[in-house]
């Protein structure tokens, strides 16, 4: 049984004539006749009674036609769905992000551009986002300082500096800039290992051959900000992550200016999908606007 045979049979049954069925399919009548005859011979059935240019369904033909109509209606619905998805009218996109600051403006713009696409967003640290993309648990990622990979498309969106977050009233809170060596004897509040903030901080510490001992490790930027606010120590965030809080003061770090690169990432194989390509393209537009 071939699709073309069923298509020819269905057209003839709908039109009640081989000639009109052929016209519907934009084929010649002999071609349609051959397709239907091949179907009948393959299964030992008589599907039509030919009479005076008409094609009258037999009981077997009627039973088959009831099924082919359902089949081709479903096929048409599938085609309509795929066409809508191609036009970005329907579909799904899962986004993994290591924080809302770089992601939300792009997500909002994409949602306005493609309101028919259902979006879900999973938040995690930088390594979690990278692994979610590589394992295809998410379609696109917005993260920072992602290592190069032969499997990934990586586009830079923006550059940020790391700042130190100082409790208000601390002796460093009036400073315009701080240096990492000045902070090594202070109680430090750090993000968890695997986070981009921790990775950038540790890289700078190693490069400067510094050591620290008194630390508190917390699993989110919100927790770091709150711990600093209640006086547990000095924390570290990127400049776009610092929200208005009169309990803390953000002081730039000399060694960590422009240390963070926000990126949009996806698998190279996923970029063939229209919805993924559209999101990445929109993110690139945001990056270009920031540059200009």
From TrEMBL:
KW Chloroplast (keyword) present: no
Pfam families membership: HTH_1, LysR_substrate
PROSITE patterns xref list: HTH_LYSR
Domain HTH lysR-type: 1-58
Sorted UniProt keywords: DNA-binding, Transcription, Transcription regulation
InterPro entries given in the database record: LysR_HTH_N, LysR_subst-bd, WH-like_DNA-bd_sf, WH_DNA-bd_sf
Gene Ontology MF terms in the entry: DNA-binding transcription factor activity; transcription cis-regulatory region binding
Domain of life: Bacteria
Family designation: Belongs to the LysR transcriptional regulatory family.
Protein name as it appears in the record: HTH lysR-type domain-containing protein
Organism of derivation: Kiloniella litopenaei
Lineage per the UniProt record: Bacteria, Pseudomonadati, Pseudomonadota, Alphaproteobacteria, Rhodospirillales
């Amino acid at each position: 049984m071939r699709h073309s045979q069923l298509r020819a049979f269905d057209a003839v049954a709908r039109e009640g004539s081989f000639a009109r069925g052929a016209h519907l399919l934009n084929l010649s009548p002999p071609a349609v006749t051959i397709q239907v005859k091949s179907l009948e011979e393959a299964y030992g059935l008589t599907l039509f009674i030919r009479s005076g240019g008409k094609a009258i369904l037999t009981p077997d033909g009627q039973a088959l036609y009831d099924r082919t109509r359902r089949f081709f209606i479903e096929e048409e619905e599938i085609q309509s769905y795929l066409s809508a998805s191609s036009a970005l009218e329907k579909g799904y996109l899962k986004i993994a992000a290591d924080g809302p600051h770089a992601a939300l403006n792009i997500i909002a713009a994409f949602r306005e551009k493609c309101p028919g696409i259902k979006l879900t967003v999973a938040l995690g640290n930088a390594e979690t986002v990278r692994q979610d993309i590589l394992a295809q648990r998410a379609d696109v990622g917005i993260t920072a300082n992602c290592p190069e990979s032969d499997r990934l498309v990586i586009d830079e969106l923006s550059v940020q500096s790391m700042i130190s977050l100082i409790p208000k009233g601390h002796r460093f809170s009036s400073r315009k800039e701080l240096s990492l060596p000045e902070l090594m004897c202070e109680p430090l509040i750090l993000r968890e290992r695997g986070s981009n903030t921790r990775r950038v901080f540790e890289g700078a510490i190693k490069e400067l051959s510094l050591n620290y001992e008194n630390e508190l490790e917390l699993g989110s930027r919100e927790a770091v900000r709150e711990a600093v606010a209640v006086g547990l120590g000095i924390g570290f965030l990127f400049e776009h992550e610092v929200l208005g809080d009169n309990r803390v003061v953000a002081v730039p770090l000399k060694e960590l200016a422009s240390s963070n690169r926000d990126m949009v990432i996806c698998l190279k194989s996923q970029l063939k999908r229209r919805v993924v390509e559209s999101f990445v393209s929109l993110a690139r537009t945001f990056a270009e606007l920031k540059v200009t």
